[in-house]
Design a protein that fits this description.
The complex is a heterodimer of chains A (196) and B (329). Chain A is built from nine helices and no strands. Chain A is mostly helical and 196 residues long. Chain B is α/β, with parallel strands linked by helices. Chain B has two domains: 168 residues, 3-Layer(aba) Sandwich (Rossmann fold), CATH 3.40.50; 126 residues, Hypothetical Protein Tm841, Chain: A,domain 3. Chain B is 32% helix and 23% strand. Classes of the chains: A mainly alpha (196), B alpha/beta (329).
């Protein structure tokens, strides 16, 4: 069950993880992109922490909305609109009566797909969100299952985003966006929203 | 990394401040944003807005002024600007006849500009866009399409002149799309670019190697070879463009040789001379020429070659109309 407190905790834990692993994310991006995914994400989550600390949101929807606007206005590139759209989708879902985590994450995924037009198998965030949502539905989400989903982007050939210019050469590398999303779901487990 | 910078985190702000201080007669920075807008206004005419990651200077801020862009939005180095910033640019630029966004074809730019377009329309501004994809180096681009590179500047120039002359939004968009289908670019890199925040080159090339088809953010090209004379490099790039256009004797083209950042004008002119010889062999009529570093990739060495097929003589005229911008094009 999401509350204002544990949702904020989730997002703060996500921010910590991004900051801890910024160099690793940039290294992944160096392989099949332009090497700035870590620094771009850090700029976003730092702004998000600041806004969440300032705001006294009374509902979960408001928390997601605040996070969405911070990421959207600070990350830039493709990741800004994608994370922003995910959180806007989640904010809308959280505002509805029937508040179930898998439904909420599904709304986030729909936000990502509507904005980025990516399908499963194109080596993007989508390839991480889909198995994670399935695991949430089946109550099988663990840190290991998240990391496995991140690893599973490795053999894919990128057909969306900047990595697609590498064609066949994108095979064998983890998708940086899937990796940063992996931290979002590890944070979900660590903040106690779901028990892995 | 050896660069004249301070903390890379402040790079964009410092670049903008230096730019506005230098060109304050023509442009200003919109308070609290990374938007450069022109001081000149032409009420009742369509305004053009472009932008993208920084690192491509003088694109795009250098082209803000009378006869080209009404505003440019800068993102972090090689990173698309955010929707909130783009919306501010649109609002400032609007002269009451709508705003045309000129967007280079990259996933990030497309998404951020699209979101901004939606937001600006909510505020009652009519917005449309032209997406520029002119880099023909990769054939199999899947669903993402061709990247936007140096040809974008030709689109700024022609549409800028047409907007200045009073063309409406719909016609500008149509003209823009027609231009994009008649512009093609291909580049060659001799050494990679270093993004300041990353601190090391985006890829590696041996001292004696070049790579054809590299993008303006260091995206991989299509072939590596030993460095060779300018004439042979020109032969490779011109052959690619010839295959693309499938040109016939007597057709009219414009040539734009663009330096990628670290290649001096001397080499750019030598390269232009080789290109013109090759076009002359095919009896192509050259009706427009431009040489210079206008769409750079920070400190990448190399050039790109853009050709525009002049389907309409009016385009040549528009390319030659005077501008009043920080960078004259």
């Amino acid at each position: 069950m999401l509350t204002v407190e544990n949702t904020k905790q989730w997002l703060f834990t996500f921010a910590d993880k991004i900051k801890e692993n910024a160099s690793y994310l940039s290294e992944l991006d160096q392989e099949i992109g332009d090497g700035d995914h870590g620094s771009n994400m850090v700029r976003g989550v730092e702004a998000m922490e600041e806004k969440l600390n300032e705001s006294d949101s009374s509902d979960v929807s408001e928390v997601f909305k605040t996070a969405a606007m911070s990421l959207l206005s600070k990350i830039g590139g493709a990741s800004g609109p994608l994370y922003g759209s995910a959180l806007i989708g989640m904010a809308k879902s959280a505002g509805e009566d029937d508040q179930d985590l898998a439904t909420l994450l599904q709304a986030g995924l729909e936000g990502i797909q509507k904005r980025g037009q990516a399908e499963q198998g194109e080596k993007t965030l989508v390839d991480l969100w889909i198995p994670v949502i399935e695991a949430v539905q089946n109550n099988t989400l663990t840190k290991e299952s998240v990391q496995k989903a991140v690893e599973q982007t490795k053999p894919l050939k990128a057909t969306k985003g900047r990595a697609s210019y590498y064609g066949e050469r994108s095979i064998g590398h983890i998708d940086p966006g899937a990796a940063s999303s992996g931290y979002l779901f590890e944070a979900l487990l660590e903040s106690g929203v779901v028990n892995g | 990394m050896k660069k004249i910078i301070n903390d890379p985190k402040n790079l964009l702000h410092e670049l903008l401040e230096g730019f506005v201080f230098t060109h304050h007669d023509l442009v200003d920075r919109l308070d609290g944003t990374n938007v450069i807008h022109r001081k000149y206004r032409n009420e009742g005419k369509v305004a053009l807005v472009s932008g993208g990651g920084s690192g491509h200077e003088p694109a795009h801020a250098g082209f803000v002024g009378k006869g080209m862009l009404a505003a440019a939005v800068l993102g972090e180095v090689f990173t698309s600007p955010t929707p909130d910033q783009i919306v501010e640019a649109i609002k400032t630029a609007d002269q009451g006849a709508g705003v045309l966004l000129i967007v280079k074809n990259y996933s990030g730019d497309i998404m951020n500009f699209d979101m901004a377009k939606d937001l600006a329309e909510l505020e009652g501004i009519t917005v449309d866009h032209v997406v520029v994809g002119d880099d023909i180096s990769i054939e199999d681009t899947g669903s993402v399409g061709k990247r936007g590179v140096a040809g974008t500047v030709l689109v700024h120039k022609i549409l800028g002149a047409a907007a200045e002359n009073g063309m409406n939004l719909t016609d500008l968009k149509n003209l823009g799309e027609k231009l994009v289908s008649n512009i093609a670019t291909i580049g060659v890199s001799l050494s990679p670019a270093t993004v300041p925040e990353v601190g090391k080159p985006g890829f590696t090339l041996a001292e004696d190697e070049l790579e054809y088809g590299v993008g303006i953010h260091g995206e991989a090209g299509y072939r590596r070879e030993k460095i060779k004379p300018s004439y042979e490099i020109a032969e490779e790039l011109v052959t690619q463009l010839k295959n693309h256009f499938n040109w016939a004797q007597g057709e009219r083209f414009g040539i734009f040789v663009n330096g990628l950042g670290a290649t001096p004008p001397m080499e750019q002119y030598i390269f232009m001379n080789d290109v013109q010889k090759l076009l002359a062999q095919d009896e192509i009529q050259v009706v427009y020429t431009k040489v210079g570093s206008y769409m750079t990739a920070i400190d990448m060495a190399g050039v790109s070659l853009t050709l525009i097929k002049m389907e309409d003589d009016e385009w040549t005229k528009l390319l030659n109309e005077p501008v009043d911008t920080p960078t004259t094009f």
